[in-house]
Amino acid sequence: MNRVVVSGCGNVYRNLTLETRLLRQLHDKECILYLWVNDRTIVLGNSQCPWLECRSKECQSQGIAIARRPSGGGAVYQDRGNLNFTFLYRRGQADGARLREIVRSEIEETVGRPVEASGNDLLADGRKITGMAFYEEQDNMLMHGTILVDADLEAMDRCLTVSVRKLQSHGIDSVRKRVMNLSEMAGDITVSRLLRRLADRFFTVMGPGQVHWLKETDMPGDDYGYGSHEWIYGESPGCELVVEEAGGRGIYQLAFKVEDGYMTGPRLYSDTEHAEDHGRFLQSLEGMEYEEGKIKEMLKQYLAEPGTDNWL
Question: How far apart are CA 151 and CA 24, in angstroms?
Answer without folding.
Answer: 31
